[in-house]
Write the structure tokens for this entry.
Amino acid sequence: MTKSIRIDAEADEEISHAIDRYEREREGLGAEFWAELKAAMRTLEAPGPECGLVIGVPRQLGVRRKLMARFPYAIVFVESDAFVRVISVMHGHQRPAYWRRRL
């Protein structure tokens, strides 16, 4: 069974900001970021062992992360029986816990 992916509004804003930033850096780079992000999100429908638990968050909350291969971003998510909730698409160089208030 394929689970739907729900992206929180704040995570959606992070995605838009990243696409705009990369597009300003080099034309087409924002589209490349978006393509890799979509591919990474498709793997969240059945997350594998490469999606580790987030350190510093109580284990019972089940908050996990998926690192992107090319860009310094991680998808922070929680899996339920019915869907995957994307809490943040965080840049690896930002303060690591800024998104925790969203839980």
Notes: The radius of gyration is 13 Å. DSSP finds two helices and five strands in the chain. Residues 9-25 form the longest helix (17 residues).
